[in-house]
Amino acid sequence: MKYIVSQIKKDAKTDPRAFEAMIDGNVDSVFFLSSYQEVCEIEADSLDEVFEIGNIGPDEKIRRFDFAPMHSISVGDVIMTETYECYVVKGVGFERLPMSSPNGRQWTADEVVA
Fold first, then answer.
1. pLDDT per residue over 31-87, tens digit each?
2. 38, 106 Cβ separation under 8 angstroms
3. CA 25 to CA 13: how far, in whole Å?
4. Residues facing residue 88 across a β-bridge
5. Is the peptide bond preceding residue 16 cis, with omega within 30 degrees of 0?
């Protein structure tokens, strides 16, 4: 299974919501849509394995995107499944973002605010 990892853009790391995401794993849906970027694709069997590969490898299971630098997977990062469900990395485990849907449709910032 292929997973897409998104991390906070460098220029958004001074936003108070970025601090909350990186410390507590609490990700505001609008902040996610506006301030995260996809950094890589990882071939894995589960979210736990994505986390492991994103931290210790093997590197051949990671396809880094040239346009976005990637750091090791940590609290506040978001992992998207092949069915477009998004999960935030928490201090322990993962939490599904409420704005992702199992029918393959990602909500827009306007819809999340409404």
1. 898 899 999 999 999 999 999 999 999 999 999 998 878 999 999 999 999 988 899
2. no
3. 14
4. 78, 95
5. no
* pTM of the complete model: 0.84
What is the secondary structure of the chain as a DSSP string?
-EEEEEEE-GGGTTSHHHHHHHHH----HHHHHHHEEEEEEEE-SSHHHHHHHHHH--GGGEEE-TTS------TT-EEE-TT--EEEE-SSSEEE-TTB-TTS-BPPHHHHH-
Q: Are 94 and 80 in contact (CB under 8 A)?
A: no
Which tokens go with 60? 């051949």
Inform me whether the pLDDT recorded for 103 exceeds 60.
Answer: no
Per DSSP bridges, beta strands 94-96 and 78-80 are: unpaired
